[in-house]
Structure to design on (496 residues):
């Protein structure tokens, strides 16, 4: 709701608006404004922006040089990218007797990130992941600018600088630059979609921001299938902003741009696999591949923390699973403990799955679900989401997952504790903004859209088997923007 200039800032809840207006020159409280020059007013934000970007670049380069890594997912994406360039096939390398013959098609991943890797491999050399990481660093700094620009347009220069600094020095997003994974590009798409929506709101119609929104939504889906929820939140917001009649053409164009890249992918899956699959399968398996539904259901009856994701969930079908790594909540009785121990002993003999073993896992899972359905359908899913949100985000560092069970060096404890507290600061500032309703008065549509993306993602994560902190990394563009509003409110009182 637009405010009259003569009454702006008279509401105590909006007192911070006296100091900065996003289109206005800097003002100070009191009857006697302090003199300043126009060049100085423009110079200070410019220096602050350069310093923020320099700090952000230094952090990302340091992380790449010291903690750059390739994960199992990296190798999967890299293999697909290489085969696209060498064999012109999106799939696995086909090797017979040590000789690489061709590539076998697959659809377990969407092509967005392999296409990005293929472009980097073409420019910088095959499987040059260090170059990939530096490209991601540049993209992530662009994401920081988008978040700073968005906060600046809503709250003013001070909030924009706060958002820029919060994004630039945030270790939880910067550390994923040093891994060839989808997270950095996904955060960029989310930030671009929000920024494009804010700019489009100023001038609804078919303009460049429609194409920016369409690109962001389309590529986000090509990176990760669950990012369709971003489109499901942004498109209704466009209708809400302009109304059905005025939003018909731009919304139709955004929907077309979002869906269009999926058409060749869907057609390819139909031609190759004879299935209708516009996205990637839920369990990342090709048609005809067996899936351990029984094991996954059993794991959902007790799995919560990221530690057991690593020691149990990821180990299945390839590495031993030790009953000592399972928490007490994995057993409801002594008899169930004995049955689970015998099952894991049989599995550990070969470290591989089978239909018979999966049926035994499913039998134990069925018993546990019937014993306490509320635990299975609500308590544990909520606990997994909370663990993803508030666990110290040190999964990209060479630290023990259960650091409290060992005798690590003091600096490891300080890092774990510091990361955990810093994560709480980001969530706390965002919660303070929502509680004080600072942002709602300035841009209600945008805040509802952003909160809708978090709520829908939490609901989706409640259906996920394994807990991984990176699944909630997509919250950070929203947390940073809301946190910048809190910083704006607090600092304008302390430093008017």
């Amino acid at each position: 709701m637009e405010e009259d200039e003569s009454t702006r800032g008279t509401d105590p809840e909006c007192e911070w608006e006296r100091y900065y207006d996003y289109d206005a020159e800097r003002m100070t409280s009191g009857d006697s404004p302090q003199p300043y020059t126009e060049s100085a007013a423009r110079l200070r934000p410019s220096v602050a922006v350069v310093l923020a970007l320099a700090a952000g670049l230094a952090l990302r380069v340091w992380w790449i040089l010291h903690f750059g890594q390739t994960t199992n997912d990296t190798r999967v994406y890299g293999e697909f990218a290489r085969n696209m360039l060498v064999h012109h096939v999106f799939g696995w390398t086909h090797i017979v007797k040590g000789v690489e013959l061709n590539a076998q098609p697959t659809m377990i991943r969407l092509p967005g990130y392999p296409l990005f890797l293929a472009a980097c491999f073409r420019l910088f050399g095959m499987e040059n992941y260090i170059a990939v990481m530096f490209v991601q660093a540049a993209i992530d700094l662009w994401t920081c600018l988008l978040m700073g620009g968005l906060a600046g347009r809503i709250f003013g220069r001070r909030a924009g600088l706060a958002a820029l600094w919060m994004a630039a020095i945030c270790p939880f997003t910067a550390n994923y630059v040093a891994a060839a994974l989808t997270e950095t590009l996904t955060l960029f798409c989310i930030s671009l979609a929000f920024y494009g929506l804010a700019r489009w709101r100023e001038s609804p119609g078919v303009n460049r921001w429609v194409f920016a929104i369409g690109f962001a939504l389309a590529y986000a889906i090509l990176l990760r299938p669950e990012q369709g929820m971003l489109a499901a939140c942004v498109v209704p917001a466009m209708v809400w902003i302009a109304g059905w009649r005025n939003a018909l053409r731009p919304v139709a164009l955004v929907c077309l741009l979002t869906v269009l890249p999926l058409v060749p992918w869907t057609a390819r899956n139909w031609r190759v696999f004879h299935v209708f699959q516009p996205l990637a399968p839920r369990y990342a398996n090709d048609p005809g591949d067996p899936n351990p539904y029984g094991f996954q259901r059993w794991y959902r009856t007790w799995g919560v923390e990221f530690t057991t994701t690593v020691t149990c969930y990821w180990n299945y079908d390839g590495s031993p699973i030790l009953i000592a790594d399972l928490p007490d909540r994995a057993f409801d009785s002594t008899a169930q403990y004995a049955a689970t121990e015998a099952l894991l002993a049989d599995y550990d003999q070969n470290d591989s799955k089978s239909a018979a073993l999966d049926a035994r896992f499913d039998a134990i899972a069925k018993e546990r679900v019937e014993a306490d359905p509320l635990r299975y359908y609500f308590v544990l899913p909520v606990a997994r989401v909370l663990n993803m949100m508030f666990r110290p985000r040190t999964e990209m560092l060479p630290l023990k997952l259960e650091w409290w069970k060992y005798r690590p060096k003091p600096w490891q404890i300080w890092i774990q504790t510091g990361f955990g507290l810093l994560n709480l600061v980001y969530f706390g500032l965002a919660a303070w903004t929502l509680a004080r309703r600072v942002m709602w008065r300035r841009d209600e549509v945008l805040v509802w859209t952003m909160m809708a993306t978090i709520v829908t993602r939490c609901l989706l994560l409640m259906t996920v088997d394994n807990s991984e902190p990176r699944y909630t990394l997509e919250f950070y563009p929203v947390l940073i923007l809301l946190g910048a509003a809190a910083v704006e409110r607090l600092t304008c009182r302390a430093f008017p």
Summary: Confidence is low (pLDDT under 50) at residues 1-42. The longest helix spans residues 228-259.
